[in-house]
What does this fold into?
Amino acid sequence: MNEENRFIRFWQRLWYMLPRYTVLYMAWMVPSFMLPQEPLIPDEYLEQIRNYYKDDWEETQKYAQQIQEFYLNIHR
It folds into this structure.
């Protein structure tokens, strides 16, 4: 990859990332009294979601553990 492409990619990424991070920063500056105090998602609905995806979540955790063990054993 030549240097010209790196320069162009840097400016392209900056062009797209600047508005995103500006909005995120401005949202961080909103005072807490202006934000709603009730949760965005009710606890009952969150529990339904947890129950529905419980098996998938457990399988994902098992897979992540296997991958972690694999990479830790490689680099020892």
Q: What stands out?
A: Residues 3-74 form one domain. Helices lie at 3-28, 43-52, 54-74.
